[in-house]
Prior knowledge:
By secondary structure, this protein is mostly helical. 61% of the residues lie in helices and 0% in strands. Among the domains are: 9-61; 66-119 and 216-223. The longest helix has 35 residues, at 190-224.
Amino acid sequence: MSRKSKIDALKKVKIVEQYLNGEISQKGAAKVCGVNKRSVQDWIRIYKTEGPQGLLTPKTNKKYPKDLKLKAVQSYLSGEGSLDEICARFGIRQHVQLMSWIKVYNEGKELKELTGGSTMKKARKTTLEARIAVVKDCLSHNRNYGAMALKYNCSYQQVRNWVNRYEKMGSAGLEDRRGKCAGSQPIRTPEEELRDRIAELERKNKDLQMENDLLKKVRELERGHRFL
């Protein structure tokens, strides 16, 4: 697929060199070129890693190996660097590309697209105490399921399921009930049912807000790169 750029490559090189020479700020450069500040940051990073030649518009979109995508996402979620630093480390040309991969990873349901269906982490066996520890850590870190999955060497879906069950039933929801009859489940009072229902609704609202915030950020980055 061919790419079109509304900003001449030579102009990109000139504006980046002006910035590197201290003649203009990123905000000023963005205003001069009529682009988002993120676009200017992308140009600067590409110039630093690939030289002026890197700012020439490629004939085709750059393709990234699936394992590189996964490593980049995991590095970002692990707090190893900012978007700009991770992009520079893995040779990713635009912030919006990394943000879109993070969104796919955090949604969980499309994780195979990042791993190629062969290296996706399998669910591993854990103790009740370990599951409780993971859940509490996750809740204290704004429900960052991806980061917790990396930290505790388990799957994204495991972490999310544990948090959901913990909020519905407390620690009892994290017990391994496989092989046990439904009648052995603890009886819950109407007050507990109501409390758990409220907690579940609050969780869903928070998850939706987090997803909307991430989607909004991705769209803002995409709009900024339409001028590239």
